[in-house]
Prior knowledge:
Order of helices and strands of chain B: HEHEHEHEEEEHHEEHHHH
CATH topology of chain A: Amino acid/polyamine transporter I
Oligomer: heterodimer
Largest sheet of chain B: 5 strands, mixed
Number of strands of chain A: 2
Helix content of chain A: 55-70%
Radius of gyration of chain B: 18 Å
Amino acid sequence: MATASRLFVRNSTGLVRSASAVDATIFNAVISAPVGSTIAYSIFFALVAFPGADVVGVLILVAVINIPVLIMFALLGASMPRVGGDYVWVSRVLSPPLALISNLCMIMGGLLGAAFFAKFFSVLALGPVLVAVGAIFSNSHFIDWGNAFQTNNSWILGASLFMVALQTLILISGTKATFRWQNYSFIIAMAGTLVGFIVLLIGSQGDFFSHFDALNKSFGGGTVAQVISGAPGAAGAAPSFFSSATLPTLFSIQGFMMWNFWSVYMSGELKSASNRRRQLSVMFGALGWDTVLLVIGVLLLFRVAGYNFVYALNAASTAYKIPSGPFYPFLASLVFNTPILTIIIMGSFLFWSLPSMIANTFMPIRSFFAWSFDRLMPERLANVNERTHSPVNAIILTNLIIAALVIWSVVGNQFQLVLGLIVLAGALAVIIVGLAAVALPIRRPDLYQASPANVKFLGIPLLYIVGTLSIAEFIGIIAISFINPLSVMNGNRDDFWWIPAWLGGLIVGGALLYYVPRFIRAQQGVNIGFVYKELPPE
Amino acid sequence: MADSETLILSDIRDEAKRLAEAAVTLGLSARLIGGLAIWLRCPSVHDGPFGRSYQDMDFAISAAAATKFKALLMTQGYLPDQFFNGLHGATRLYYGEPAGRWSIDVVIDELVMSHKLDLRARLDGPAPTITLADLLLTKLQVWEINRKDLGDTLCLLADHALTEDDGEVEGISLPRIRSVLGKDWGFCHTVERNAPKVAELWSQERLPRTTNDVAAQVTSLLRAIDDAPKSRAWRLRGRVGERIRWYETPEEVKH
């Protein structure tokens, strides 16, 4: 038949999943290194924490070393595009307890990250924005409110828990609505950040210094030159890629740049998730977007403000008296110092928090969902709401944990320390996933042969190469934390014991998450070991 | 004949008819779609070159009817795929026949495959299936079209005439087709690519007794599509053409 050659074979009614490549790329981009919030707070501290740090050079280096990691996750994600990500791969290829350890590591990263961004909204976004706007427009009420959102525990708790409540409602309203909120928030936030970049690109250093001097003087501070001289080491500071600062800076920057594989946790909902190219494009798209914009953003700020002045601002110069911290949007607003640009740049900054919270929170919810289907958790945790079709119980449990972490972060003094340990949890998880990647062709040849991961490079399975490189890289990351504990320990060497305790706790915790439910289910006559012999349904 | 332990009939075609009619009787906005809907509406597909076996049945339901329709399936003994329904339940549902003989796919509010067909407010007609125009669109929207789809479409066009009356139950409503395809260039383009394949198949495998000349029906259909008023979005997308992919590729899901 003439038409036969142009026809296709289809065995069942197909499914077009709900999340697009754009949803997934933004999902990665807002969890890994959300451009606006990263450039505002997570980069320039390295100039002072690790004198001589070459931020641009390390950003590029970090992007390069993440390449094998992302290829590994993309291959595994395309081969087994299931809810649960590493939990499914490791449990089906290596062993269930190891899967729970790696998954617990990722979950802790997600939960702590969500709590961080909830608090970020109050302390590092709303508060500074109000103070900065108040300072620029000479409004003392705004300054007072802004200070309260940065320093008053009740105000901080109120704003942070409001964000947790908001994202709970969004997540309950369903996957489509969740991605709509994520994307629109990202677009608004990114647009403001790009306006800041344009301002820094076309503005002059003379105007910026003139506006800064006038504003700083109005609060009793000094000129740009006085700010530089008021910060120890600022005048002579110069970046050097080949210095002892590079490794600890690499650890810090890798801490927020390593998560571009996060979209594997939405593989169950991602269109064409079993397509290798799709998986690679959403991960490398996000990595490329974040890296290029962060490098451009850093270079633009150095162009207008100069390396030494930015160093001095981050070194808490005694001549800096403006009540707002010297965060990126504030500095960008000063270039032209006009109301409309200030409102756009500063107002849009408030939108960075929500999409990052959503992306962080999405993963634990899906993992709890996958666990409960494997009977590691009570089945009711996977119950979905009849109207919104979202797993309400899992969403509420996850957000209650995040709320508890938020409270801890506000009233306790160890949250920042634990936050620094997220990267170690991620490193441990990636090492375990790397082992699974290397083991897949050997332990599950049936699965491997037919999968999109069956790719060879110079005759060697690519999974061997990228798995081994990922393991080596993250062993190196953990080694850096032992060599330079200050890069993890928030500056306090006495807290060094947290590193082995944290890693040990994750290993023991993950193992317990498997063995305790297994024991309980065995008492009920259920052997949960059988579920790990097959891939879960899609 | 019903199985001894359940209400489910032993033949999937009879069972599809029974469930679809039950939905109508209960007043649910739920109608049969897919191959079994064609079987129910088109005698030509009952035997001859395009007669075939069926592995699954498909329903389109409104979101408002979801709870009652799920209850209907459950009371008949169908087993939900809890994982799939938990993850995709806002748009899709999946149920298995207890003995594993077939499955039921349910789309909610809209069919989202190669293209999106909004079925809201079109699931309350007198027939146990969606309207014939919507049935035709569900078949011709398939980018990776296969012989079964073409055969079903051929039988649909052979047994039912195109009509300008949207209310005519046994006619294929051209106003509906124009309305859908005049807004969506991609959908329209796929239909325009697939329709000639139906005519080509007709030229090779004619049915012995038919009401309509399929080749003439395809020509009329393509002319109607061509004459349809096009939205601004349609025209803008049309300028880009095939340089950007205009269809989705549905994935087969392992349950």
